[in-house]
Amino acid sequence: MSGSESREQAVFQITNREPMPVKKPKPLSKIWATDVFTLTKMEEALSKKAYKAMKKTLETGEPLDPATADAVAAAMKDWAISKGANYFSHVFYPLTGASAEKHDGFIVSDASGKAITEFTGSLLIKGEPDGSSFPNGGIRVTNAARGYTAWDPTSPAYIMHTENGATLCIPSVFISWTGESLDKKTPLLRSNAAMNEAAQKVLKLMGEEEVSTLNSSCGAEQEYFLIDANFANLRPDLILSGRTLFGAPSAKGQEFDDHYFGAIPPRVQVFMQDVEEQLYRLGIPAKTRHNEVAPGQFEIAPYFEAANVAADHQQLIMTTLKNTAKKHGFACLLHEKPFAGINGSGKHVNWSVGNSTQGNLLDPGKTPHENLNFLLFCGAVIRGVHKFGPLLRAVIASAGNDHRLGANEAPPAILSVYLGSQIEGVFEQIKKGKLDDVDEGGIMDLGLSQIIPFAKDAGDRNRTSPFAFTGNRFEFRAVGSNQSVTGPLIAMNTMLADSLNWIAGELTKALKRTKGDTTKAVISVLKKLMKENEAAVFGGDGYSAEWHKEAKKRGLKELPTTADALPYLKDKDVKKLFKSTGVLSDVELESRFEVYAEQYILSIAVEARLVVDMAKTKIYPAATRYLSDLALAAASASEMGINIDNNIAKNIGKNVNGMMKAVAKLEKAIAKDKFKNVEAHMQFCAKDIRKLMDEVRKFVDALEVDVASDLWPLPSYQEMLFIK
Length: 724
Ligand code: ADP
Ligand code: MG
Prior knowledge:
Helices cover 47% and strands 13% of the residues. Strands 9, 10, 11, 12, 13, 14, 15, 18 and 19 form a nine-stranded antiparallel beta sheet that branches. Strands 1, 2, 5, 6, 7 and 8 form a six-stranded mixed beta sheet that branches. Strand 10 and strand 11 form a beta hairpin. Helix 20 runs antiparallel to helix 21. Adenosine-5'-diphosphate (ADP) binds next to strand 9, strand 11 and strand 14.
């Protein structure tokens, strides 16, 4: 099939597709968490004693006794079978960023050969998948394959329905036989524990008598693109690398800003409702949905939850988006930059910490200057961002996210923190040793009788900041759409733990100096904290060239690529941070660096090979065919005594040659396999390979605007973004 035929067929199929039936949304009360083994279901199924033990584990993180585990397992199995599941699976989160599962049947045969179902506490608690094919960054040699999955009772089990049946899914950690973490969940749980321990110390020093266990919370906003699957299937780059490696801009892009918050296209709305229904059944509180800035771009955000549960739910949201898209004839693109020249996708990670006795410690209340706990926790975050900015950059580093950070659509690759005028004002006072009231938001009165006046927020939003205070939480805005939220949450919890430990030490000394005057002690600790860390506070335009200069002056690191950022995982301060808090050992941290570096190198290698392949087998044939058409046309015309303009032919010739030259250079670069170390290999990918890929692209995109549309083999940006 020629280029145009396959593309025309795709358009034909899209225009003639049977629309998915519009289902009336089911009442929430009928579907909410029906596929989750909730605490309420446990209460119904367990003895009073077992239920109490289970509840205590959930609240305090204390281990479960074996008898209760047996009882929970039996109840879980009965419930799962009643929902049609014959299999169970420990679901875990290896370092690839994906979710992994190994299914086991409930079935066993008894002595008489009869099949019965069984699920014991020990099966619930521990699984033993062969872990040798999961990346472990040198923690284990391949023949030492033993890895364990262990049940995380703090994240509820659920039923996953697919076309081939139902499976009981049990959220789990994944560790090596030697006890090292091979996954993302283990350090998240540890980071939460470290943060809790440090926060307890500070709150006790502040005179709080009752302090319940602190937990971190997360609400993640997920951006994504939807394009018709008929187009996606014609693009090997989208299928294999998740982004378009070639593509001339559409005559109309996002310049009208007419997509942002616009009416959701009907076909997309049907898709969204389907997604939401599945999420509600899984107990995931999907709350907002809207069109995003770029054409074809959308967002979904659940209501925030405990970080550990939110992280598991985030993975389920990504899986549900992708699977449901397929069902609706869409491809859901989670890549950070599927299309050049229009906005990419991020995942804003909203994060706060709190407990049932003190509430949200990042909530300033109406009078922030009087809320000493808030000021200490907020100060702790400022210190964290300052001391561990490069770590925060490293945990969001990926080949995909490199395309966003630093482009003028996403926060820059420099980590700073935005506080908003009111909170920044309070900290300015603190630097002078005072704690005075500053501007509040006030009332928004439009002077229109029909609009009810409302309270204004105390600070505006700053969309250019990678890390912004947004009223009662911090929003880490530089996270990539395709990434697990776990890395950022681990980094934030751990840096907070470190800062709170520092504060506890300083506060103890200060309280002695001030003879127990808490306010004075807090001011003096925070004054010192700000003196040392104020460089990270920035409220201006993060996109501006001045900021890049200013940041450098302030000693903040700008780390444009993954190759620049990832090595900070091995930085001595970062090692000390993770070791002292017990979140990751040196070996575990080192292994993470190895795995992420390898993933970066592999993703770029896949893209580079695709560029070569597509240029040679799709673009070159199309361009030369057209050239031959033009040559024939010119010859025939000249026989008739007509001279036709041959500039296009000349251009095509020039661009084909340019493209093939660049392809040859790229092939040579791909073949290079000797590097001093992984760092050097990553730099080669970031600087050389990426540059050569861009060079090929420049010629291909120039060809796309000259070659006859009916010969062009790839669906265009205009087709993919605007035809639904
Ligand atoms: P916006 O796009 O205006 O920033 P959204 O409503 O799309 O806001 O998303 C904000 C996210 O922040 C939601 O997931 C919300 O539940 C979450 N969130 C709100 N309060 C907190 C909090 N205290 N801690 C963590 N996340 C929060
Ligand atoms: Mg937001």
